[in-house]
Amino acid sequence: MHPAPSVILFTVLSGMGFGLLATLGFGLLPVTGWAALLFYGVGYALAVAGLLASTFHLGNPQRALRAFTQWRSSWLSREGWASVASLLLMAPVAAGAVFMGRLMPVLGGLAAVLCLVTVLTTSMIYAQLKTVPRWNHWTTPALFFGHAVAGGALLAGLGNAPVLLLLLGLFMALSFRTGDRRFADRGHTLATATGLRGGAVRSFAPPHTGTNYLMREMIHVVGRKHALKLRVIALLCVSVLPALVLLALPSGLVAIALAAALHLAGALVGRWLFFAEAEHVVGLYYGRR
Amino acid sequence: MTTLPPPSEKKLGLVIDLDTCVGCHACVTACKGWNDQGYGAPLSDQDAWGPAPSGTFLNRVHSYEVTPEAGVAQLVHFPKSCLHCENAPCVTVCPTGASYKRAEDGIVLVNESACIGCGLCAWACPYGARELDQAAGVMKKCTLCVDRIYNENLPEVDRIPACVRTCPAGARHFGDLGDPDSAVSQLVAERGGIELMPEQGTKPVNRYLPPRPKDRLEETAPLAPLLDIKATGFAGWLDRLLDRI
Amino acid sequence: MTRHEPRLETSPKVSDEVRRTTCYMCACRCGINVHLKSGKVSYIEGNRDHPVNKGVLCAKGSSGIMQVTAPSRLEKPLRRVGPRGSGAFEEISWDEALGIATQWLAPLRATAPEKFAFFTGRDQSQSFTSFWAQAFGTPNYAAHGGFCSVNMAAAGIYTMGGAFWEFGQPDWDRTRLFVLFGVAEDHDSNPIKMGIGKVKARGGRIIGVNPIRTGYNAVADDWIGITPGTDGLLILSLIHELLRAGKVDLDYLARWTNAACLIDETEGEEKGLLLRDDLGKPFVIDRRTGDAVPYDTAGVRPDLGATHRGCRTVFQHMAERYLDPEYAPEAVAARCGVSAARIRSLAAEIAEVAFNQTIEIDQSWTDFRGETHEKMVGRPVSFHAMRGISAHSNGFQTARALHVLQILLGTVEVPGGFRFKPPYPKPAHAHPTPHSYYMAGRPLDGPHLGFPHGPEHLALKLDDQSPARIDKGFTWENPLSAHGLMHMVIPNAVAGDPYRIDTLMLYMANMSWNSSMNTKEVMGMLTRKDGNGEYMIPRIIYSDAYASEMVAYADLILPDTTYLERHDCISLLDRPICEADHAADAIRWPVVEPDRDVRGFQSVLVDLAGRLGLPGFVTDDGRRKYRDYADYIVNHQRRPGVGPLFGFRGHGKDVGRGAPNPNQINAYISNGGFFAAEVPDAAKFFKPWNRAYQDWAVSMGFYDTPQPYLFQIYCEPMRRFQLAAEGYHERQPPDHLRDRIKATMDPLPIWYEPFGEEGATGYPLHALTQRPMAMYHSWGSQNAWLRQIHGENPLYVPTNVWEAEGFKDGDWARLSSPNGAIVVPVAHMAALNGDTVWTWNAIGKRKGAWALDPAAPEATKGFLLNHLISELLPDRGDGYRWSNSDPITGQAAWFDLRVRIERVDPPDQAQPAFPPIPSPVPPAKRNRP
């Protein structure tokens, strides 16, 4: 799949943002006043920036509000609702913490749950797609969830953040590995795609000598040869290095900022791979995935 | 809206005969021509006379080679457009309801005025049937020429999709696959019409008729000579031959 | 929430108006419905009423709108201002352009008409252009058949009075076995596709004989991946098998062919000619009486086994030849690349369908001898072939072999077999002979092109016996060159051999690119100057609608309209659109007006003819007879009552013959742009011998008296050339050609190795081209839709070579021939003869042409094989370089090409690369619409 910057930024930033907001909502970092402004501000900024980024790839963003209509069937619509609901519900919690110095554990907990639901709905946009076997698996929501939780803990400077980061790293490694086999496991081949029998089937010529939307969008082979290198970089940056930074440096904003920067970079690389390594079954028709 | 309607009795679709398609691309440009001026936004072309021309097409013809373990390889031309699935995943993923399946005849359409151009429906389609028009920013797909098949401004004989009307070899058939007695259903039954990628569970309406078994010439026994020419000479052969008049 | 669907307009208005005219993309010439919205073309579809396409339309036709709006359309007449080839032009007015042309041509006509040569590439109005050239008086006129498919056409006409494509077609409604030789796409493109669809729908079988399995061969039930150039050998081997088993139609051969005619075997100047009676009629021996009687005697039963004064029949000569073990499947298998078992099975299957599955139509008919037959009995095997078998130096004999095979099976002009399309059948002797005698200021002595019956009809000057034509058509080098040799015009004119010319006028002929062998050399020839600093071809006039590669090499450009902006007629005098059951012709008319300062080329010729005062185009007092081409179409009469269009003559009701009707074009427009007259039921088959057909043909104006004839298994005119080479004719060939004429002008089909084989040591592979269906025969490479389908072309390589060379996807190769080398991208193809590589032809474009971006893939990855092909064969040590053509017709032997391949590192673009030529039209905009 084409690793469009808009969707990479969308999923990574909003995931971290909602993760941080969830951490705050659950009261795991009971901050108020200026500190609350900073943390809630970062949470909101990331979540909103991510959501905004997601509109960049729309052909007709002026109609974006229509995306709220199909929550019954569409994960993308549900994601819209969940994100707006969680941001709205979190608003009084944040305002209370910043301006009134009050914590609202019940409302905050509810908003936090919604934040995590939002992350899950985001992940389901991808996980629902049978056409992309690598994504179409429980590991996709788990991965997004893990990113949100570990990222949120990291940004909040929670003491368990290094552990969560290392767990996330382990899970990433696992999902890389299991994802590699899934296309084959699902049994999609050019023979099932075309129904042609009686011998080995091979694409002789594409329908057009030029490229097209489908090939640009769903058959992304550029950069895959660097995948292993990038996987190592992603794992190190998402997990191992920020965990080491948090453990090695004295706790504080400097450590958090450095670890968060590393983590963000790793998450972006990881998400690039999430798209770039995902193979759409339509590639079969074109003889390349 | 984005929810699928209950399965319709009428299931309009195409039956494509892979044994007959010569790969001429007539259906490709006839489709482009009709839909460039018909339903919704035109099908634009970017860099039309430049180094990387790329435009929106609703129907494209692939070519595959099938190489058996023994014997000669075969070439199969393979037109592909929307299969108007019963379980259309492109419909349910749509956040705006722009993508829908008609309850009346099962045609899957995009209501372009509601389409935000997110592209998710194209991702959800296993067949590559949807292309986001780069000029209009809306998703384009085969409409089964819904603006032809019911069009009272067209003579009745022309109320068929443009690709079917133009196909010189008659490799494309249009009809109601929900009616077991329809010509298309009969054709599917006779020729063992297949679904593409059944494992995706999309239940496509369109069917493909597989190529007939090929390259069996050697099964024909050779001709028996009239007589042994070496023994009788040419004159003997001529006598025997002309005796038969 | 309830589900609700958006309101949908399912009955939108389709267009403001539909105008019905004729497509121009290829020689198929389908009927089209052009939809207009606000006066602009909005959509083009096939015309359901049209006899050719019955509503269907190919990819090219359906993309016509991109042709009419192409940015490469020329806009104004141009005069060259820089050096030739530099692309420097200035725009001029039509008055000026026509004035220049007149200034150039009038003195030539008055003093040396042969110094003007007029050749047309894509021309669908040859009866008009040849009439024009005849009136001018130059012997130098032809169209592009010489580098296209004259072998097939001429072999068909000499053998049976017509070949495939516009001459005839399989009986698609009845044939059960269709055998297709050497075709990629075809002139008859939509009818063949429709026919294949019909055969398939009926469960009939299709067998493809072709080195490459694409297109029609891809849907063939069996594919015989023959080695290029060996089709004739395979066919003769099939004939061997059929004869050996006695599976030939003896009754058919005796009645309808010259198989029962007797061949003179006495030494002397008549040896090998048919025995004739005192009136000159060939005679046969009547089996009932043993008497020698003229072949057309009522009630005669010609005896195939007869001997008369030591002379045997054609049938015996033929059978003896092909029964020889040299034609046995085992003997030819390796050479053809087809196993003996497959050849045997093919022969057996053909015989099974021909002789055990006969079909009948309950329709009586009367033959030319007066015998009435109760039924029409047919053998449902049919064949089709095209350039693949004919573009070889053995192509004429190969095509003849195929026609003879059909005749032996008795499957020509019978139900289920091959059927002629009116005005064919028309045997060689009913066609004109070639004419080439010119005199200053006078018209030529007759039509340029025709069918020689012997050396007396060659186009040789009477004084010194040197070639009369610039292309050396109808000379000893290629006596039966019925379509001329357009591919030799430029090389001959530059070499001054046989003479120099002054002005060359070309119409839609891309001679500086894909229509020439040896493209780079030809570019050099077009710009070469003599010692006086004058171009070797001093003046070139070119007409084209588009900025093709040729534009830069002309001195005066006459911009043509697109096909929707012009008048045209697809005439029975020319290459009509008939089907087996219909005589039909058609028109084009301006369904939209040009938005540029361009004029239809034929109207320009009418104008020029007026300025030059050409007979036939001016009245006795020298005034212009025709306003424009439309006026000519309506009012020109070739013979009294017979004009370019055969429908709506006289007061609008006359068909075939009748006075000019001033409303004829409007009548055609109201009728959908065409006119069709159905062949009467009793006349639908056995046309060459069928009285009902012959009478109908006369009433239609095809000819003036009934012309029944026998099929020529034995081709006597060829024997006359052999006799001359043996010394028996007052016209004698040059000595260096004697042996070749004796060997190749065999009156019974033979097979010999293509000439290209001689220099092929070290070049183990054959290299072929095909035109893709979406571009076949079309001037449409700039088409915004079609170029997305075929914007570049790889060289397809068979599995054995692919693996031996270690090729991978994305690799490039150097392909070398005795004439040069190209470096091109490669791709793997398994369904391909193991000794053959191939590519799509004419995808490659010169940078700067066709209003394409210089970085367009057509110019960077697209390529031509033409660079590898020379128009002359290497010197054979006798000091002569023979033309790379068939020695009988002069058809360009494109497919004799031999090559070798090697893997190379990818260059930045395909080689050879040429510098861009400046575009004569403004750059295209980026996107569409």
What features would you describe in this structure?
The complex is a heterotrimer of chains A (about 290), B (about 240) and C (about 950). Chain A is an all-alpha fold. Chain A has a single domain, classed as Formate dehydrogenase/DMSO reductase fold. Chain A has eleven helices and one strand. In chain A, α1 runs antiparallel to α2. Helix content of chain B is about 20%, strand content about 20%. In chain B, the strands form five sheets. Chain B has a three-stranded mixed beta sheet with strand order 10-1-11, with helices on one face. Chain B has about 240 residues and is an alpha+beta fold. Chain B is elongated and about 85 Å long. Chain B has one domain: Alpha-Beta Plaits (2-Layer Sandwich). In chain C, the strands form ten sheets. Chain C has a seven-stranded mixed beta sheet, with helices on one face. A six-stranded mixed beta sheet of chain C has the order 29-31-30-33-28-32. Chain C is an alpha/beta fold. The relative contact order of chain C is 0.15. The longest helix of chain C is centred in the N-terminal third of the chain and has 18 residues. Chain C is about 25% helix and about 15% strand. Among the domains of chain C are: about 45 residues, ADC-like domains (N-terminal domain of TfIIb); about 200 residues, Rossmann fold, CATH 3.40.50; about 150 residues, Beta Barrel (Barwin-like endoglucanases). Classes of the chains: A mainly alpha (about 290), B alpha+beta (about 240), C alpha/beta (about 950). Chains in contact: A-B, A-C, B-C. Chains A and C meet through β1 of A and loops of C.
